[in-house]
Amino acid sequence: MPCVTSCSELRRPPAWFSSALFLQNWTRFWPVWTLYTAVWLLVLPIGLLNGSAGNWSVLSGGYDPNAYIVQVLCVGIPLSPLFGVLAAMALFSYLFHPRAAGLMHVLPIRREGLFLTNYLSGLSFFFLPILAVAAIALAVQLYIGPPVAWTALFLWAWCQGLMVLFFFSLACLCVMLTGLLPALPIFFAAANLLVLGLYSLFQQVASCFLFGYKSPDMSWLTWLFFLFMGYGGTMSVPGWVEWLSPLLCYYNHLGHTGPPDYRLTGLLPIFVYGFLGLALAGLALLLYRRRRIEAAGDVVAVPWLRPVFRYGVALCTAVALGIVLWNLIVPTRQHPEILVVLLLLSGALGYFVAEMFLSKSFRVLRRWKGCVVFLLLLLLGTAALALDWTGYECRVPQGGQVVSVSVETSLFAPYDSGGFLAPLTDPEDIAQVVALHQEVVDRREELRGGQRNYEWETWSTDGAQISVETQSSISLNLEYTLADGNTLRRAYTLPVTEELLAQAGSPAGRLDALLNQTDQIRRAYFQNWRERDTLVGAYLSSYSGEGSSFAGRELEILYQAVLDDLEAGRLGRHYLLEDADYFQHCYYNDLTFTFYPAQAGSGTSSGEASSYTVVFTLQSTAVETLRVLNELGVEEELLTMAQVSV
Questions:
Q1: Cα separations (Å) of 343 from 86, 314, 366?
Q2: CA-CA distance, 607 to 610, in Å (whole number)?
Q3: How many secondary structure helices (H) and strands (E) does the chain include?
Q4: What is the pLDDT of residue 364?
Q5: Which end of the chain has fewer surrounding CB within 10 Å, N or C?
Q6: Cα angle: 468, vertex 421, 209; to 5 degrees
Q7: Cis? peptide before 260, omega within 30° of 0
Q8: How far is residue 591's CA from residue 558's CA, in Å, rounded to a whole number?
Q9: Rounded (5°) CA angle 260-262-265
């Protein structure tokens, strides 16, 4: 008997909509729209009432309905996909059961009519509650009294409607791709996050094989964890990855300007995905017209999607499971050849698991030919990374191509405000960084797979024994902004020893020289300082915990002494190793200067709130600063790190 693929035959009555089915959907699936309405009633109208009463509010500075509505708009980002997929699962649940599917498709209504009725039912589950909540929120604002946030309330309703239109349409499309109900939320999640997940997995693999590849600051799993904990946050990815990951795109773009006006920003994804939702609904209808009733119960209901599912599951399993096993078996992340073996084994496992789901049988070993093809392609891809066929590892930009470069390192002693480099734009500084980068690349075979190794030895001083560092490691992150607008990023781990520091041409020696240039030191300390900022106070820390404060004329003299030592290169020396030189010349005491920004002004509460500090660790070479402190009578509080350690 031929399978039924459409109920749109000419003999059928031309029924394009069923009011009875529409009303049945509302009464049968009432928990979906009821819960959605209840959540927004708690968030918006009741939130406005509580905010006006001062009980709780996300606002600062009193009742402001515009600010509140704009800030809670982002609550719809997790709500829309959650309720969108729930509504699609409920309204099209008959497609996942053969008997129910057969029963529904013998009714005197076209497939187009079935789809249109269910689709409009789902939209009404959200649009009508949104309008009702907006009306109640407006009534609440009128009851409380002015101001009334007309524009913010309209934007809230408009944005929620477009967001739920997209996510519900996407869920309907996913319904047409599978015949297994538990697979629907998985397909839906994959449609939202698959590109982001694959990009993140590629980064993980690339960081294992490519020397200098910068791993992401936040993996997609970490981002999802924060999302489920109530904070989505932002995640830096290329633009094409962001736009192909709708959930991430909403979180990264949608926001507001903050006080005092709280204007909504980042509305472009709202409109783009809203119109895309209409296109997805049309595509879902086309798939529904050709969907086989017998597909109920199949993981993949569309024949051409079966190879995509098979190889997609194999690829994701290979990378995700392979990296997890590698980290467990080889925690030092050495021996990439072991990773290749684990990738191949995990890929084979994923391929046959996917085949089990598709064929609904455990007898899948006869499909070994497809598995071999996949493993060969996977091996070719890993070889391209391991052998650096693209020349990624050797690429070092020429000085003339670089507009600016940012150099970030792990912390190094002393741990004050000068322990980092400000962005570099001077051609001579850029050339120095490029030379450092080239030296690292030239020694890549020596530095590849660098681990953090630390060694100490005992050093005797004043009859006491102190452990000083003789070997350490430091991370080096470079980010070039090129003249063509592109960005080049690299990340390395460099070994640091006394011998390497003594070699001016070694990576450690070049980095040490770069960090301790007089101009670089001053820029690092005063990166936030502006010409009209006001110095208002200074504080000298003490080992006893009491410390000393300075103001007035004493403050001016002390500050000038610090500037003189900085200009002369007698203050601000930093150490990549906490060696004997560091313990002898660096003090335990920090000198902290407090500034008010020029726009805030001094002596005001707003200035106090926006003040910033610059911290200097005292050093034995800062003769002017030590002389002034001696004249101020605080020399007894000064102790070197060696004295404190003893």
A1: 35, 10, 21
A2: 5
A3: 26, 10
A4: 83
A5: N
A6: 80
A7: yes
A8: 10
A9: 140
Q: What is the pTM for the complete model shown?
A: 0.78
Q: Residue 486 corresponds to which tokens in the numbers above? A: 């592109």
CA distance 44 to 22: 28
Instruction: State CA 417 to chain mean position distance.
Output: 26
H/E stretch holding 482 reads strand 464-482
Q: How many residues does the chain have?
A: 646
The CA distance from 231 to 233, in Å, is 6
Give me the pLDDT at residue 2, please. 44
Backbone torsions φ then ψ of 526, nearest 5 degrees: -110, 35
Extract the tokens encoding 349. Answer: 């496992």
Q: Is the pLDDT of residue 221 over 60?
A: no
φ, ψ for residue 366, nearest 5 deg: -70, -10
| Ordered DSSP codes for 311-361 | HHHHHHHHHHHHHHHHHHH-TT---HHHHHHHHHHHHHHHHHHHHHHHHTS
Q: What is the 3-state secondary structure of 248-274?
A: HHHHHHCEECCCCCCCEECCHHHHHHH
In whole angstroms, give the CA distance from residue 634 to residue 188: 67
Count of other CB atoms within 10 angstroms of residue 554: 15
Angle at 83 between CA 104 and CA 117, to 5 degrees: 30
How many Cα atoms sit within 13 Å of 145 on the Cβ side? Answer: 3
3-state DSSP assignment of residue 637:
helix
Q: Which residue is associated with the tokens 């926006």?
A: 610
User: What confidence category does residue 350 fall into, taking pLDDT thresholds of 50, 70 and 90?
Assistant: very high
Q: Which amino acid is at 623?
A: V
| Cα–Cα distance measured from residue 612 to residue 526, given in angstroms and rounded to the nearest whole number | 11
- The torsion region of residue 597 among left (phi > 0), alpha (psi -120 to 50) and beta comes to beta
Helix (H, G, I), strand (E, B) or coil at 295: helix
493 with 513: CB under 8 angstroms?
A: no
CA distances from 625 to 126, 335, 634 (A): 68, 52, 12
Q: Contact 493/451 with Cβ under 8 angstroms? A: yes
Whole-angstrom distance, CA of residue 235 vs CA of residue 220:
8
| CB-CB neighbours of 228 under 10 Å | 10
Place of tokens 């003490």: 542
Weakest-pLDDT range from 90-104, 417-431, 454-468, 514-528: 454-468
Burial code (b: 16+ CB inside 10 Å, e: under 16) for 396-413 equals bbebebbeebbbebeebb
First to last CA, the chain: 92
pLDDT at 368: 87
Secondary structure of 211-230 as H, E, C letters:
CCCCCCCCCHHHHHHHHHCC
Residue whose tokens read 């996909």: 81
